[in-house]
Protein: ABC transporter substrate-binding protein
Amino acid sequence: MFNQNRVLRRVAAVASISLLTGCGMVSSSAGADRPIVVGTTSAPSTLDPAGSWDGSWELFRNIYQTLLAYPNGAITPQPDAAKSCAFTDSGNRTYRCELRSGLKFTDGDTLDARAVKYSIDRIRDINAPSGPAGLLGSLDRVQTLGDHEVLFHLDKADATFPLVLATPAMSIVDPDDYPAKSLRKEESVQGSGPYTLKSYEDGRQAELARNDRYHGFADRQNDAVTIRYFHDSATMVAALRSGAIDVTYRGLAASDIVALQSYRTSDLQLIDGSGININYLVFNPKAPWVRIPAVRKAVAQIVDRPAIAFKVYQGTVDPLYSMVPAGLTGHTASYFDAYGDPSTSKARKILADVGITQRVPLTFWYTTDRYGSETAKEFKELKRQLDRSGLFAITLKSRPWKTYVAGYQTGKYPVFGRGWSPDFPDADNFIDPFVGDHNTLGTPYSSPVITGKLLPESRAESDRGAAVGDFEEAQQILVDDARLIPLWQGRQYIAASDGISGGEQALDPSTIMMTWELYRKVSW
Structure:
């Protein structure tokens, strides 16, 4: 077992590569400087919210509005386009929002209750394969009362519905510019967010400028932002060091993070914050050997998470022992409670108890271009651990993301790796997407107790702390089934030039960057 006690632990949530020197610093006035240039590896797949359930949300948060969102420091959704929102009944089945007055889209059209209803309805009507219609599973219908009031009627209790409304998937679009039954193809945007999309080059960059028509919670610290899209971390970091970009967000490789931590200069800073994205293994029970619960449990007994976190990812991720990450209400260490430290002898007994004495052949699949350059190293480490036990013979196979998705959605992989960045920061979103006959993994996972009892009961609780018991029981079922094995929990890293402030405030609880919090320092 890898001894993580030999690894120095972090002593601060925010680490600066060097001490600031010189005179006092104050915020620059919004609009006084040139655009702040942000680099990321998370390029949009579309500019239409009805077609995206992916990294496009990064851009959407800055150019569209949602009824609710997460202002800096908020841990629950707060009004943005809405003036107020609340459930009107004790059963969490009718949700009412009153809009702010005077809301306009960038072209001057009015943003009213009709636009909100239109935006939500078209998501379900279009039902794009890559779209977010699945988030609206509890919604029955949307009703408008006048120009400023919207009622959402749910077909079952769902205390997570406000969290869904706060996702960029529920961005409000102009009915005059977005077709009701198909996705918009133009590379332009008619939104009402903090910025307008001044120009856009697919896969290259997006230029944002302050939207003077915006009315919402965002207190913009700059007038313009340019987002540049990179294919890999090394190129992005090189651009940061050369001054071609001011900030990096999402996509930093572990080796680059470690290099930045040791890069002693007053020119750069590295901000390290907690994250709730996770990485895990999925077992397809239709595959030979994998259908045997003892085989899955033996793998879970051998996997050495600290070795993966510290040897492969160099301490830039944390070992995870539950599908619900640390920091969320309802998190447990259920896998550690069940299996403890990695043990070959315990795994051998698990197999022997069901009569398996031979080496079990398994094929592990991973994607080559989705979760970072360390993914291949991670799976080589998993293979090393399992092969060394003498209980397994692991074959590794990989594909690029586009073809990889098609493979796992059609059940072709016995065991495969996945990552998950949440739609919203709630334990529900780390359980519900993975169970049921039509889950996000393409491998049906029937768990009637979770889907028919525990999740419905938890969604009846507006106080999420009151749902902890349901989440704990659901996580124990996941452990007992061993269909999903959590591996690690990510952290958030922002690298920036020393002249940039606001990085700590730029991340909302859903780990989406709010670029309006960034600004250039000026001395006095």
Summary: DSSP finds 13 helices and 20 strands in the chain. The longest strand covers residues 268-283. Confidence is low (pLDDT under 50) at residues 4-31. Residues 91 and 420 are 30 Å apart (CA to CA).
